[in-house]
Amino acid sequence: MAKLSKKRKAALEKVDSEKLYSTLDAMSLLKEVNCTKFDASVDLHIRLGVDPKKADQAIRGTVSLPHGTGKDKTVLVLCTPDKEQEAKDAGADHVGLDEYIKKIQGGWTDIDVVIAAPNVMAQLGRVGRILGPRGLMPNPKTGTVTPNVGAAVKDVKGGKISFRVDKYGIIHSSIGRVSFSPDKLVGNADELLSTLIKMKPSSAKGAYIKSISVASTMSPGISIDPKSFKQ
Fold first, then answer.
1. Dihedral of CA 60/65/69/72: which sign?
2. Residue 35 CB neighbour total at 10 angstroms
3. Number of H helices, E strands in the chain
């Protein structure tokens, strides 16, 4: 077993693993126990009382974080030439179609989000096996298949993120960086949680938000009291 560094050991000692913290206390403590020298990502892990195997309980969607993600996302827009200028003007990093499909077929996935116009979706079948497992396949439910490519690019660049429940019923989502103030992290967490609560399937029984924890890239996980959010 790897020996814990002094910093990591001290961080673990500050977190009470039996305690459920308020959102603000959790975010403040997270900043205190972060061990990285870089501006680490802050991730929320939310266990939902859903069965992802049931189509109506396979939660997925998007949310615009009020304080952004702290990361400038690299966006590829796949579209026909008439939409290219609109995508470029909105700030897309890569715009085109055939040449990018060939690049992806060759293994290129150096992008965070792929947005596609509806009229090119048939051509994306060739790269579905590459984009799908990486969570990059455009989807109308997440707003990444749309004729309004410019608006979609602005949304992503402005802090819009997509989320989906995994096979264990957990949503994993970045809500900012360690450099954010606790208030900004709380604001982003609140926005994600309230969006999830609005999406509660009528067929889901029992507690919907079962547990919540927050962690930075290398910090210990801190448990948040789900009761601090209206269910």
1. positive
2. 18
3. 7, 9
